[in-house]
Amino acid sequence: MRQETSKQENRKTQILDAVFSIAAEQRAWSLADIAKRVGVSKTALYRHFANRAEIEKAMDERLVAKIAEMAASAQPTLNGIRVAIVTFFRSYPGYLNHLVFRFLSDPSFLGILNGAIRDGNPLIRSYFEEFDALTGEARAEEEIWLQKNWISLLVASYPAEGMEDMMDGLVTTLESGFQRLAVPTDTRLDDLERKSLIEEEKLPTGNRLYQAIASSIQKHGLLKTTIESIAEEMGIAKSSLYFYGKNKTEMLGELVATETKTIIEFCVDGISEGETLAEQIFVLMSIQADYLIKRQDIIPVFNWIRIEAVKEPRMEAPEHPERSELLDRCRTDGLFEGKSDKKVRVGMIMKWASLLSTSCVVRGKVAGLSDAETRKNVRRMFKSMMAGDKDAALPNAVNGA
Questions:
Q1: Which site among 87, 172, 190, 382 is 20 to 30 Å from 76 CA-CA?
Q2: The predicted structure's pLDDT at residue 229
Q3: Start and end residues for every CATH 1.10.357.10 domain found in the chain
Q4: By percentage, how much of the chain surpasses pLDDT 90?
C-alpha cells in the first residue's frame, strides 16, 4: 500500500514538473501538452488529477511552498529577500509565468503569497505583525510600498538579454531610491498634477470592440472571455473580428499599440512641464493615471489582454516613434554618468513608472476607491519610488533592526 502511495506521489510530482517546464517555454498549456511531456495518455493523467483545476491548485500549492522555502533561506535583510525572490524566478521562469498569470486573474493571490513569505521568514513575520496594526495614512503608504515591491520584483525577474545589470539596478533602487533626485514639494506636485489633466474633448471616442470585450468579461469573467464570446457580444461572426487583425495575436497587439500610442502622445505634450527628471516622472505617472481614470472602460479590456499576453508571449506591443521623442525630452539630472546607454536607462525608469501608475488605477478600481484617492495613491507611489525603503512606515522591522 505504501509503495502504491509513493508511486502515486512520484507521478504527481512528475506531472507538476512537466507543467512548470511547459509554462517556462510557452506559458499556456493543455492536458495534451502535459501527457506528451510525461509520456503518458491524457486518460492516465486523470488517475492523479480529476481535472485541470486540480492541477492548477497543485501548482499554486507548490509555488507557495517554494516561496516560503526561499524566504526561509534568504539573507536576513529586506534586500536579501528581494534578491532571493528575483534569483529564484530567474532560475525557474515557469513559476514566474504561473505567478504573473495568477496575479492578473486573481488579485487576492498576492495576499496568499505574502502569507507564505510571512510564514517562512521571521523578519517578514515581524514586519507583517506591525503592518497589521497600522491604520490611516501609514497603512495606505505601506500598502503602496508592498505593491511597488512585488510589481518591481516581477519586472526584474523577467529575462532581459543584455539588460541584466539594469534589472539588478531596479532591485537596488527599491532599497535606495533615487538619492540624486530632489522630491518636489506637495505644492509643486499639486501644480504638476493640474497641468497633467487631459481635456475631455481630446480623449478618443468609444470603441465598439472594447465595449464588447468589457461586456463579455462582465458576463463570463476574465478567464472565460474568448474571441467567440466577444463576437457574440458584437452580434457578428467570429471571422468578422479579424477585420481588426489577421489573428488573435495581431488583433490584440493592435489594440495595445493604439492605446499606447495615444498615451505616449499625451505624455510627449505634457512632460516638458517637468523641470527636473523627478518632476517628469511624476508628470508621466499623472498623465497615465488621468487617462485611465477617464477611460475606465479600457481597464477590464487591458486586464484581459494582459492575461492573453501571458499565455501567448509573441503578443508584444510595437515600439513607437513617439516614445523616442518622449525620451529625447527627458532630463537625466546627473544619473548614469559615464554610461553610453543613458537614454535606454531613462526609458526603463519611465516604463517602470508607467507600470506602477497603471497598477494604482487598476487597484483603485478593484477596491472601489474614489478618483481622488486613486490619484493620491499615484502620488504615494511616486514618493515611494524616489525614497526607496526610507519611505517605508516600518524601517526598523524591514531592516531587521
A1: 382
A2: 87
A3: 2-133, 180-388
A4: 36
pLDDT at 283: 97
Report how far residue 288's alpha carbon sits from residue 360's, in angstroms, rounded to the nearest whole number: 10
C-alpha cell of residue 72:
526561509
CATH number for domain 2-133, candidates 3.20.20.70, 3.10.110.10, 3.90.1150.10, 1.10.357.10: 1.10.357.10
Q: Where are the alpha helices (DSSP H) in 27-108?
A: 31-38, 42-45, 52-73, 78-91, 93-105
User: Is the confidence at residue 104, as pLDDT, over 90?
Assistant: no
For 180-388, give the CATH class. mainly alpha
The model's pLDDT over 147-200, given as tens digits with 9 standing for 90+, comes to: 999 899 988 998 766 677 888 889 999 999 998 899 999 999 999 999 999 999
Half-sphere exposure of 183 (CA within 13 A, CB side): 16
Contact in structure between 335 and 350 (CB atoms under 8 Å)? no
Neighbours of 32 (CB within 10 A): 11
pLDDT of residue 30 exceeding 50: yes
Q: Which cell goes with 258?
A: 493604439
DSSP category for residue 238: G
The set of cell numbers assigned to 243 is 477585420
- Over residues 310-332, mean pLDDT: 69
Dihedral sign, Cα of residue 268, residue 269, residue 274, residue 275: positive
AA identity, residue 17: D
CA 373 from centroid of its chain's CA atoms: 21
Cell readout for 394 is 516600518
C-alpha cell at 126: 515581524
Give yes or no for residue 219 having a pLDDT over 50: yes
Average pLDDT along the chain: 84
